[in-house]
Amino acid sequence: MRFVERLLLENQAWASEISHRSPEIFDRLKSGQSPDVLWIGCSDSRVPAEQLCNAAPGEMFIHRNVANRVCPHEDGFMSVLEFAVAVLKVNHIVVCGHHCCGGVKAAMTDENTGLGHLDHHLEAIRQVRRENAETLESIRDEGERLNHLVALNVMEQVRMLSELTLIKDQWSERRRPSIHGMIYALETGRLQEIHRWDGDENHTFLRDAG
Ligand SMILES: [Zn+2]
To answer: Is 6 in the active site?
Structure first.
């Protein structure tokens, strides 16, 4: 069976199953959405946001790109962020990185990937790597070094979000706004929060980046 035929059949099965379990769900979804979280994750196929959070349709507003970057100069990214905070008024933003991230791995060196858009996109992560070169070089294990940069990248994205005017303006009027930096461990399926921002200067680091 061709892959697309399989997708369509699987979709039929999924829609039937979910209708059986929650007969009202599609009627409810038709009337609108009010997700509580904006999820900014990596495009990697091994990190399916809704599945790993066991979330139902309507619960998570999602943006994914290579290596879960915050991109203040891209309309695609900023329109998602703008809509999430100004219209949906989500209470939480999650930035989720993951172990063994191919995008971050490509940013471990200055060697071009040969893909113009990707190299441009990865430059900001390469900059995080340069700024933390000493710490990273002290980590002997290659996999641990990569996962450390994954964590540093997540923390940098949380910091960038917290300093955006859009976030400060929209969230200053509301109670307990929060941004969460998380890491997903592919090898165990577990998600861990490493960094939280609760407004103003309240950055909390919940574990070492490594
Ligand atoms: Zn990735």
So the answer is: no
Domain spans of the chain? Answer: 1-32, 33-205
Query: Ligand 1: distance of its center to the CA of 28 in Å?
Result: 33
* Res. 182: pLDDT tops 60: yes
Kindly report, residue by residue over 85-135, the tens digit of the pLDDT.
999 999 999 999 999 999 999 999 999 999 999 999 999 999 999 999 999
* Rounded-to-integer distance, Cα 94 and Cα 192, Å: 11
Tell me if the domain spanning 33-205 has CATH number 3.90.1300.10. Answer: no
Tokens encoding 25? 């769900």
Q: At what angle do helices 116-131 and 142-163 cross, to 10 degrees?
A: 90
Catalytic status, residue 100: no
